[in-house]
Design brief:
With 626 residues, the protein is of the alpha/beta class. The chain has three domains: 2-152, Beta-Lactamase, CATH 3.30.450.20; 171-330, Reverse transcriptase/Diguanylate cyclase domain (Alpha-Beta Plaits), CATH 3.30.70; 359-593, TIM Barrel. β5 (123-135) and β6 (138-147) form a beta hairpin. Mean pLDDT is 87; it is low at 1-17 and 608-626. It binds ligand C2E and magnesium ion (2 copies). Ligand C2E is lined by residues 362, 378-379, 390-392, 395, 404, 408, 411, 435-437, 467, 502-503, 526, 559-562, 579-581, 586, 611, 613.
């Protein structure tokens, strides 16, 4: 557009100069010699399409005008010559003298913008340049005037269009909220403002909890409507000068300005979580969504946009980790954890390929006979520089990164390999339990893999047991995820695979799903077993679990038995099976043949041990006589 304006302006300037010469030519005293040539000039002048005017420099009186000028203003030549410059051309803020001065310093690149006043009262937008010259004793300027009304109209339309495009580019078309580009353009300015005024700024990173599920199960249309409602609710919760941005998908950012303390930020975050957790009616259906919010503060948590957004995002992940539907303020410790997490994730990928993963086995024992009735396969990561890394540190990360699926396949395959090896070495096989996380259960076709691999290794699927944690699988709020798990469990049962619930007691421990999912075994979490002998409430919980399981004909394993008193207590309460360091620590496959002799474990020399696993120092027991 600017180029066009320049080109037209330049053209106008050239035309103006030419016309001025023609006009001046007309004003010069006529001589015979030139008469014939003058006729040609006269014709050219009459037909010249661009308006031109000659004005006396000292009186501002119009001296002459060409037909294009008289046509444009609607005056006759005589009427025009009776007028002053200011009757026909004006420029905002300057008088006729000022205008002439401006015209004389105007260049082809920047002509003077003026208003042309016509006889009929209309006003047109024109541009002009001029040439000053002396005609005899008279100082005049010859003006070339170019009508730019149409161009101005086109320019203003274009500007309007540009503004519309600009709006579109900086706003989200679904919710109408400013978008990521807008944030990138405005946040640095808001930070500068806060710095100058010495106030705080809060960056809230919002991510809807399990929105993907709503989108997948109810369709994108419903998902879109939900996002609109979310946008409206967030907007209505904050002040008008705060900024609410949709970053994309189910992510929003809120910038709170002029924050006077962390309490205000907490209040606002709490109000947003509350506003969003209220049910929303979309297409006649009531939907419930919640939000996880991470908060970073300027200047405390970062000095620029990138840092503030990154830290708010980190805090948001912390909110997700803490069970969603809450908000977390950023702290430097979170950043450290995140970096550690990223490091673990990347080295875990290498671990899978470079054979750093191993499977160890721990016996599950029948208390009365001390026979090994099963083994539990436990994943081990032997890091080249950190030694053994505990599954608790890396399994959740592997789940989040989706790595748990290939890792789970590795555990299954290695377990079956070890079982065939034990069998070949004369061991009497017992069922082996593998731990399966919710992600793995839903994403991989576990039943198909078990069916295929057991066939390949010549083993019965019934020789496998799958351990699922109750919180991860049974208490999923989304029906879809629960249904997916239920289907997967159903297929495993059809194959003859046994189902155990791990860490029982740490979740809701609901009777209804125990019946519905027809589980075979419950494993009482070791946190209840640890202080069983001294803690009355742990004792009450464990005895209730055992009584309930008996009633439902479900086997019970007490996990984490480290001492004789614990073992005696669970036995008295009616628990049939136990697992723990008292019997054996998890061992590599080549040390497990001893458990598969068909003979009871000899515990006469067994010493209960302290938990050395947590030090990651390997499997050496430490004496602590019971
Ligand atoms: P879990 O399935 O409940 O496994 C039992 C954990 O208790 C094991 O920890 C075991 O070493 C430990 N343990 C056994 N007896 C005692 C005892 O007497 N005292 C104490 N203090 N601890 C005892 P580990 O091997 O560190 O595994 C931790 C968790 O990691 C497992 O808990 C399981 O949830 C998960 N995990 C382990 N292997 C896998 C796997 O292959 N896949 C998946 N998805 N998760 C796994
Ligand atoms: Mg387990
Ligand atoms: Mg457990």
């Amino acid at each position: 557009m600017n180029q066009l304006a320049f080109a037209l302006g330049a053209l106008g300037g050239v035309v103006c100069a030419s016309i001025a010469l023609v006009l001046v030519w007309r004003l010069r005293p006529q001589s015979r010699r030139w008469r014939e040539r003058d006729t040609t000039q006269q014709d050219a002048f009459e037909q010249w399409p661009t308006s031109a005017l000659v004005v006396d420099v000292s009186t501002h009186q119009i001296v002459s005008g060409n037909p294009a000028m008289t046509r444009s203003v609607g005056y006759t030549f005589a009427e025009l010559c009776a007028l002053h410059l200011s009757d026909v051309l004006t420029c905002e803020g300057v008088d006729a003298g000022g205008l002439l001065e401006q015209l004389q310093s105007a260049t082809l690149r920047s002509p003077v913008e003026m208003h042309q006043h016509c006889k009929d009262g209309s006003v047109r937008n024109v541009e002009g340049t001029c040439h000053r010259m002396t005609l005899g004793t008279r100082e005049v300027v010859a003006l070339g005037v170019h009508d730019v009304t149409v161009r101005r109209r086109a320019e203003s339309k274009l500007l309007e269009k540009q503004q519309q495009l600009d709006h579109l580019a900086h706003h989200d078309h679904l919710t109408g909220l400013p978008n990521r580009l807008h944030l990138a353009a405005s946040l640095p300015g808001l930070i500068d403002e806060a710095q100058i005024s010495g106030s705080m700024l809060a960056v809230l990173f919002l991510d809807l909890d399990r929105f993907k599920h709503i989108n997948d199960s109810r369709g994108h249309d419903t998902g879109d409507k939900l996002l609109k409602t979310v946008a409206q609710r967030v907007r209505a919760t904050v002040r008008s000068h705060d900024l609410v941005v949709r970053m994309g998908g189910d992510e929003f950012v809120v910038i709170l300005r002029d924050v006077n303390g962390t309490a205000t930020v907490s209040d606002t975050s709490a109000r947003i979580t509350q506003a969003l957790s209220a049910p929303m009616v979309v297409d006649g259906r009531t939907l419930v969504t919640t939000v996880s919010i991470g908060v970073s503060l300027y200047p405390r948590d970062g000095s620029d946009m990138g840092e503030l957004l990154r830290h708010a995002d980190t805090a948001m992940y912390q909110a997700k980790d803490k069970g969603r539907n809450n908000f977390q303020m950023f702290s430097p410790a979170m950043d450290k954890r995140l970096k550690e997490r990223i490091a673990i994730e990347s080295s875990l990928r290498t671990a899978l390929q470079s054979r750093q993963l191993e499977v160890h086995y721990q016996p599950i024992v029948e208390i009365e006979t001390q026979h090994v009735v099963a083994l539990e396969a436990l994943l081990r990561w032997k890091h080249p520089s950190h030694g053994y890394v505990r599954p608790e540190r890396f399994v959740p990360i592997a789940e989040e990164a989706g790595l748990i699926v290939p890792i789970g396949e590795f555990v299954l395959q290695r377990t079956l390999e070890d079982m065939t090896q034990w069998r070949q070495s004369g061991g009497q096989l017992v069922p082996v339990a593998i731990n399966v996380s919710a992600v793995q259960l839903q994403r991989s076709n576990l039943a198909e893999a078990i069916s295929r691999l057991t066939k390949q290794y010549g083993l019965e699927p019934a020789m496998l047991q799958v351990e699922l944690t109750e919180s991860a699988v049974f208490e999923r709020r989304e029906t879809r995820a629960r249904e997916a798990s239920q289907d997967a469990v159903g297929r495993l049962r059809e194959l003859g695979v046994h189902i155990a619930i791990d860490d029982f007691g740490t979740g809701y421990s609901s009777l209804s799903y125990l019946k519905r999912w027809r589980v075979d075994t419950l494993k009482i979490d070791r946190s209840f077993v640890r202080d069983l002998v001294t803690d009355m409430s742990d004792l009450a919980i464990v005895s209730a679990i055992i009584a309930m399981a008996r009633h439902l004909h479900i086997k019970v394993v007490a996990e984490g038995i480290e001492g004789w008193p614990q073992l005696e207590k669970v036995r008295q309460l009616g628990c049939t099976y136990a697992q723990g360091f008292l019997f054996a620590r998890p061992m590599p496959a080549d040390k497990c043949l001893a458990y598969l002799s068909g003979q009871p474990l000899d515990l006469t020399e067994r010493l209960p041990v302290l938990d050395l696993e947590s030090t990651g120092s390997g499997e050496q027991p430490r004496a602590l006589r019971a």
